[in-house]
Each structure stands twice: as structure tokens, then as C-alpha cells.
């Protein structure tokens, strides 16, 4: 082998070694950069040039995640059970199927959907920091979640409007408020709720011409668009809140004025009876002894919405009618109190999320993620609390709830106590339990 050929061979081998070292160095650089991206950072998601999606590290320790998972499970179960109870009680109790209560049922449907379809998919996302269901499911879930939440707030506004019309425009309300009208109003609530956010969530990325929601993440694509967010917040929260507060104030004012008028007429009636007895010296005086100018006052006092001129011997029926009248006013006051509590709960649950959302559109770092997530779940808690409010302050719903729960407990108890069928001989006169009935055999031994 000549010296020239030997040098060429060495040069070739050296070139191969250099190429291998360069490739190795390139590979090492790649894995180092990949490892750097996998380290816990404040970034939400990273996609490399090699189409590798890097998942965000879990935001909580195992112990904290376990506690949060338990709390979330309890909230979901209470939300589903409570609103399902409202719906079942409404459909099984005829006295609850009034036009006003149809809106309560519609609200319970929206809250039930939040418990069934909105909360469960979000639970693993908040615990792991990664959306597990893909981009398409994220868009669908966002559209449904925002639709259900908007329907809940609009139903609360519809309930307050219905109570306002029922109390302040009673005659007109009874004449023009039919079930068909109620069905149309209920449908409008859902249509407006979907149109408020649904089309924007579905089409926002298509209009923008690019993906705005990263892989393994799920949030609305217009999260940094203040004009749209502000407009939607006005329709979804501020308008219902102001409207409900106004309607409640008018209802409360009307009921308070009626109650004062009733009490005033009651005092006048008592004073008239006392004066009448002193003058006549007898409890059984006739109508002719009462001045005709005062008779209408008695009539208005004793009967709510009707007239009566009976006194004297008919004092007992008058007192019964008067009691019914004040009982009716008491029911209206309880309804107003329930409405007030619903409004206060609505404001407490929705205000933090709405304010934080508007702030984050202008300054994304001004509200920490943990605080924003808490406000998000606080918003959902409104759907959990609504059935509790009905059970505590609505007498008919509370009675229906108790009846349903007792029936379910009784069925469960009977199912657990159901005897197991066994082959045995029975003697005459021995009690035999078969499923749900008891009978006595008097025939021959089997």
C-alpha cells in the first residue's frame, strides 16, 4: 500500500468519525432541549418542530389532588341529585305545575345539565392541568357549558319577571298568561342562551384562520377580546342582575303596601266592632245598625278579591275569610323572600367570575390562575345551591321533596327486606311472605 493511498484511507475514516460525532452532538442537543421543555415551567403547552406535544406537569400534589377530587365529586353529586329532585317533584306533583313553577323547572334543567355535562369533563382538567378529550370535544364542551350557564341566569331573570307580573298585574296576568305562552318564553331562554356564546365559540378559530386553543388546553378563543367579553357579560350577568333586583324591589314594595293596607283595614274593623258592641250592648246586632258609609270598609277588609256585607251572626265566616286572605299574603311574602335569596346567591356566585374575566382580558397576569379557577367553580355552585333554596323556603316544593325521599327510602328498605325464595313445606295457618304481600294457607301440606 502506497503512502498516498494510506493517507486517503485515514482521511476517509476521520471524515466518518467526524460525521458520527456531529450526528451524536445533534441528537444530544435535541434531547437536552426536550428535557428542558419537560421541566416544570409556567408555560401552558409546548409543541416542538417534531410534532411532539409536551404535557403540563400536574398543578397539585397527590394529597391535594385527592382532596379536591373528593370535593368536586360531592359538588357534582349534590348538584345532580338536587336538581333532579326538583324536576321529578314538579312532574309528579300536580299542585306544583303552575305557570310560575315551569320557570323553576326550566332552571333546574339548566342546572342539572351543568352538573351532568359541564362539571365532570372539567374535573380531570383542573386536577391534571391537561385537557384529555381533544380539541373538538373542547369546543363542544365550551359551547354547552356557556349555554347552560347563560340559560341558568336568564331563567332566574324570567322567574323574577313572572313574579313581578303575577303580583303587580294579577288580573292581566291571569287573563293572558297561558301554558303555551310559558312554553314559548322557556324556549326563548334556551335560544338566547345558545346564541349568546355558541356561534362565537364554534366559529372563532375559523374566522381567525388559525388554532387559538393549544393542544391539551381548553379555554374560550375570545378570552383576550375585551369588546366581545364585555358585551356578553352585560347580557349574561349585568342585565339579569339589574333586572332581577328591580323586579324583586317592585314585588317587595307591592306586597308590603298590600300588607299595610290589610292591617289598617283590620284595625278599622276591630275599632268598628268595639264601638258597635258598646253602643248596642249585644254581640248579635244586625247590619242595619252599622253606618252604610263604613260597610264597604268592612267588606274590603274581610274578603280578598270579593265582596261580602255579612256581619253579626256571620262573624265566624268573615273571620275565616279574613284568615285566608292573610294566609295568601303570607304566601306572597314567602315567595318574595325566596326570590330575594335566589338573587343574593346569584350575585355572590357570579360576580367574582365576571369581574375576573373582564380584568383578564385587559391584563392576563393581574389575576392568578388559582383565583380564577376558584371563581369558575363558585359560578357553578349557583346551580348546586338553587335546589337547596327551593327546599328551604318553598313550602310546596319542600313537601314534595320530603314525599319523594320518603318513597325512595321506603322502596329501598322493602327491597333490602325482600325475603329470599327457598323450597320448604308450609303447614296450614302459617303466614307466608311472597314478595310484597302476606297470605295464609289453609289447604293441604305441599
From TrEMBL:
It is found in: Cell membrane. It is a multi-pass membrane protein. SMART domains: 7TM_GPCR_Srsx. InterPro entries: GPCR_Rhodpsn, GPCR_Rhodpsn_7TM, Histamine_H3_rcpt. The keyword Lyase does not apply. The chain crosses the membrane at residues 63-91, 103-123, 143-161, 182-202, 226-249, 339-362, 374-393. GO terms for cellular component: plasma membrane. Keywords: Cell membrane, G-protein coupled receptor, Membrane, Phosphoprotein, Receptor, Transducer, Transmembrane, Transmembrane helix. CDD domains: 7tmA_Histamine_H3R_H4R. Pfam families: 7tm_1. It comes from the Eukaryota. GO terms for biological process: adenylate cyclase-activating adrenergic receptor signaling pathway; positive regulation of MAPK cascade. GO terms for molecular function: histamine receptor activity. Residues 82-390 form the G-protein coupled receptors family 1 profile domain. Gene3D superfamilies: Rhodopsin 7-helix transmembrane proteins. Belongs to the G-protein coupled receptor 1 family. This is HRH3 protein. The lineage of its organism: Eukaryota, Metazoa, Chordata, Cephalochordata, Leptocardii. The gene is HRH3.
